[in-house]
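Review form for a predicted model. The reviewer records the input and the model, then writes brief findings.
Reviewer: anonymous (R2)
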Amino acid sequence: MTDKYSYYLFYKPYNVLNQFTKERPEHSTLADFLKVEKDVYPVGRLDKDSEGLLILTNDPSLNAALLRPAKGHNRVYAVQVDGEIQEEALRKVRIGVDIKLDTGTYRTRPCEAKKLSKEPLLPERNPPIRYRAAIPTSWVLITLQEGKNRQVRKMMAAVGYPVLRLVRLQIEDVKIGKLKAGESIKLSREELFNLLKIETIQKTIERKTSSQNTSQRSEKSSTTAVQHSSKKGKGSFVEWRKQGGRKPKK
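Model under review:
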């Protein structure tokens, strides 16, 4: 029996829109690289000037499972920045920085960020990054569990290091692997969901929710018991207060 839905991994090249339709004749889109079912769409997004791993499907449940903040899926990015990045800047990125969104100022959540000792093995970008001998660059590995609009770029700019190149390498255990820019592979539902740890994460959330509900029921039961006990006690403080602090008549 074949899967009801289709699942693809794609290495989105630089300067390619994260959509199948062209807004202008000169635009490059996913349709220039992928021949998939008409109802297949990208889950999440990569900006036009960003590269790397993109998941596409026609399964609506995957979109909800990946993009809800409560799920907390790790997203790993290799980021080339302008300048020799310092540890203090990385520390600020780890604890969270203020960035501007359409809704106002947003404080990013704690994340992982470390400087790479050497440039990662990635396909050459087309066109390549402009080389400037007098100005060094650094590569940083960043792991997030959220994805606000142009978040990584805004985070690095907030600590004084503009992004030159950004490549998404991984989502949970789904890795870009040996894919080259513009290439794609198809996975089964079982393969992809296992790599994304969707069932494991969902069970964890359900277990926490169940525990919270049990605790709330227990607290409610204890409160009811105390109230019931107070009503039964004829000589209780509550009864005494109801009678204005006077001794009840015999």
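Findings: The mean pLDDT is 84.
Further findings: DSSP finds six helices and eleven strands in the chain.
Recommendation: see findings above.
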